[in-house]
Amino acid sequence: MLDLSILASKRLLLGLTGGVAAYKAAELARLLVQDGAVVQTVMTESACRFIGAATLQALTGKPVFTDLWQTNTDSNMAHINLSREVDAILIAPASADFIAKLANGLADDLLAALCLARDCPLLIAPAMNRQMWENPATQRNLTALQSDGVKILGPASGEQACGEFGMGRMLEADALVAAMRRLFRTKWLQGKRVLITAGPTFEAIDAVRGITNISSGKMGYALASAALEAGAAVTLVSGPVCHSPPMNAKNVKVVSAKEMLAAVKNEITHVDIFIAVAAVADFSATMAKQQKIKKTNHPLTLTLTPNPDILKFVADLPDAPFCVGFAAESENLESNAEDKRRNKKLPLIVANLVQDSIGADESALVLLDDDGKHFLPTASKISQAHHLIKHIAQLYKKQHD
User: Fold this and answer.
1) 200: DSSP letter
2) CB 196 within 8 A of CB 223
3) For 5, 84, 117, 125, which has the most beta carbons within 10 A of its beta carbon?
4) Structural domain range at position 234
5) 288-307 burial, b for 16+ CB within 10 Å, e for fewer?
6) Where residue 136 sits, what CATH number does that domain have?
7) How far is CA 13 from the centre of its chain?
8) Mean pLDDT in residue range 197-225
9) pTM above 0.70?
């Protein structure tokens, strides 16, 4: 479940240009309206050949504009007023032709004219054949737009309508909605560098067996997304999970606790905030076998060695970043978590009951810091992540003021 408050009552202009990906705009409009946004649609003439204006009008509840000379508005200056009445403009899909228009300041249709006359953020989601995307002219145009402050969303790589495979697919609707939510979220961590560990670790016993746990990595990945939305530069060091890393985060994949420690050591320089969410295995096999151990009828003794404590290593650094720990407990939640916080000298620890949260989409959290306890009642992990990032940012600011 997403936190829908960010887009509530935001006025968005959704622009469609010509391309097969225009069909995705219907789902995009539906999701934006579902999030509470007020969506005004403007379509180019070529966009109307791929999807009907009636579809977008039904989904948004507002008339669709297509003509530069359309006069059924409160004034005859639609190319000015439409852009002045919205909080942001999103062009999805943005064709190679329309990108060229924007880069060169052309205004020969309504959508191009209102982009030129805007005084709000402009975001575009390119969609085109891979060779059109790779063409130097397109890349020059995109570079020009970025230097002008236009935000480029995507594209993705995949199978295309022409049958080819490569870069040029428009991002899916949910990814674009997430980008719009990032645009409006308060930038609590603007300019800060955040390192997050997530997921379980896997400690080999032999070639096919190992020690691990049931951590899904959902909380760590949610925190990475929330930190990005808060304006941070995020590095995510992740054990083996099934999730795709959030766009724009640096992703470092590891397997074992020793690999995770090595990755953290490699990334920790100049980090402002370290959030240790990963469920690192406490022990590893002292002598892991290179080959599969054959089954016998005799007992097998497995000797275990404690794994390195990654969070303690970072917290003990001479110039340690602001460290946040997680305590997943099965009993005595608050006392066990507070003991861990004090032993590792952490400014903040986040506690949760393993039986209620590991693998689940929702969780309840208890935040323990020098000011006491702060309860976050059961909610989606992405919602909890946003609350937690705000709390971290406030503590960080307090510590550095």
Assistant:
1) B
2) yes
3) 125
4) 193-288+301-400
5) eeeeeeeeeeeeeeeeeeeb
6) 3.40.50.1950
7) 22
8) 93
9) yes
